[in-house]
Specification:
By secondary structure, the chain is of the alpha/beta class. The chain has a seven-stranded mixed β-sheet with strand order 4-12-11-10-9-5-6, with helices on both faces. A two-stranded antiparallel sheet has the order 1-2.
Amino acid sequence: MAAVTVPSPVAVKTGLASRGIANRRSSSFGNGLTHRVPQSSRLTSAPRLTVTRTRAASSSSGSFLKDVTQAPPDPILGVSVAFRECTNPDKLNLGVGAYRTEDLKPYVLDVVKLAETQMLAAGYDKEYLPMQGLAEFNTATAELLLGKDSQVITDKRIATVQSLSGTGSLRVGAAFIQKFLPGAKVYLPSPTWGNHKNIFADAGVGWDEYSYYDSKTIGLDLEAMLHDLEKAPEGSVVVLHGCAHNPTGVDPTTEDWAKIADACEKNHLIPFFDVAYQGFASGSLEEDASSVRLFAERGIEFFCAQSYSKNLGLYAERVGAINAVLSDSAAATKTLSQLNRIARAMYSNPPVHGARIASTVINDPVLFARWNEEMMEMAGRIKTVRANLYDELVTQNGDKDWSFVTRQIGMFSFTGLNERQVTNMTEKHAIYMTKDGRISLAGLSQAKCAYLATAIDDSFKNAK
């Protein structure tokens, strides 16, 4: 796919730009941050729109927004709309990445209910939070990401701002890149979560792709990935899925992550981790944060977006954080001030309820222990469904290699089905999924594994 380049609409001055390098241990990309917007250019990034405020003009010429084009339907959320309209009793919604019980019902975690009970008894008010968010949440989420004993936290080399789940955190980070890393291009894995491209493009940041998925092996193409990272210009930003890659479920091994870190360090690239599934992928908070912690321990500077939608089931609460891990505390302080300013202009301050749930669970030893148990239970159910689906696929067609189903991790499986085959899955079998062949195993029960396996095998054989 061709790269998307978006020119910066503002004048920017930064120490990084003047040096033309990034991610060196001897200097931080957060140093020397200044941003200047000349008064004459404040509104020059878009053409001025003149509206004649007369009833006659309005009725004769139509709406002043008549030339706005219709946006395409969201490729993920649109699946749920089609699913709801389907009357087939055997229908399955495997499109949206939201956890379901074995009865395919939404699940509110026990620890969330217990935390809310504590919060109600405490009588918290509903006052505005600061721009940075809830202080106890920010401390807790940084420690959850890096570990309580992390040298980064001890040295105060991290800037953390509570934001609107993973999407909002990425968007704040994108705005920071546009403002302080002018001309830097973001490199996304191919494929990646569908909203990544929109987030960076709408922030005025150009993006390109690097190789990641090997369709032949239905696994990671590490050699091609490293080759593409070596070709990326110095100072480029590289988006990395911290665990449970979406949509493929294909993750690098520990040894692979070390080589990826080598490439980022050697070529002075700026990693931007998207951590949406910590604790939900493997069931272990520690294991799922190992990639991020490796980079921190090696002294590599990076951004990281976090989300609590999956691991705490707080989908509607929009709880997350944007972090910048830097080489010195002075850079972290300045970066924090600018992240706060971006948040202030974007949404003023974040909501308190979900952040208080998360901080209560993380900071209460009893609730934290129960949360770990519930994550193991959720991850365990998905692993069981994977195993059952694999067995059913082998029963349907023992001549095909289905091992990719159990090699992948997290809530998704990348089936290898093409768009025509996906259409067959939906139109013939009432199985709703994204066109790229991704299925959400979180929306599958053991009772439906045989039905899904039959549909997949039929689609591979008869809808080529």
